[in-house]
Specification:
By secondary structure, the chain is an alpha+beta fold. The protein has one domain. Helix content is about 30%, strand content about 25%. It has a six-stranded mixed beta sheet. Strand 5 and strand 6 form a beta hairpin. The chain is globular and about 45 Å long. The protein starts with a helix and ends in a 5-residue tail after the last helix.
């Protein structure tokens, strides 16, 4: 009972209304909620799982545990949340990308990293390279995204995953499925 009250008070404190449960471990979910609070302070945020059969297509074969959520306030839709797992050398890491309604990236985070090496991909300094990128942008390692020495596999994987999610979101929008 205490755990339920604590979770409910955390949701109320952060302005998060759990319409759809975000399927993540506790620490990862905390990072997502913190991003919501930073992006939309003083707003009550609601997330709804986007259930589209096309999510099981080609992109789902390249990305594991792919989930798309629609983010709304009481008045309007404010963005989209993509969650996915991407491969590193031996394990997967969990990745979050938040988009605004114009399909531009407004936040990225590595939620859980399970390797001994390469954890630098979770740094704000590296992840800020993705801010304001859209599907029209290349989002390509070595061009507009710089790598990190010692984290080559994770950097490549994160860059590809973010590009795939960004392209998928644009495709869903062009098909009128996000309206």
């Amino acid at each position: 009972m205490k755990k339920i009250l604590l979770a409910l008070s955390l949701c109320i404190t952060l302005g998060f209304v759990p319409e759809t449960e975000i399927n993540l471990p506790k620490n990862a979910k905390k990072k997502v909620l913190k991003s919501f609070d930073m992006l939309w302070p003083e707003e009550t945020i609601r997330v709804d799982l986007f259930s589209d059969d096309q999510m099981d297509g080609a992109i789902a074969k390249q990305l594991k545990r792919l989930q798309l959520y629609v983010i709304s306030t009481k008045e309007e839709r404010v963005g989209y949340l993509f969650l996915s797992a991407a491969p590193s050398r031996y394990n997967d890491f969990d990745l979050m990308v938040i988009y605004d309604t114009e399909m531009a990236i407004i936040d990225t985070k590595v939620l859980t990293y399970r390797e001994d090496w390469g954890g630098e991909i979770g740094s704000k300094r590296w992840l800020k390279q993705f801010l304001n990128k859209k599907a029209d942008d290349q989002i390509q390692l070595g061009r507009d995204i710089q790598g990190i020495s010692g984290a080559t596999i994770s950097v490549r994987s994160a860059t590809v995953a973010i590009k795939l999610m960004t392209d998928k979101l644009a495709l869903l929008q062009s098909q009128g499925l996000l309206n």
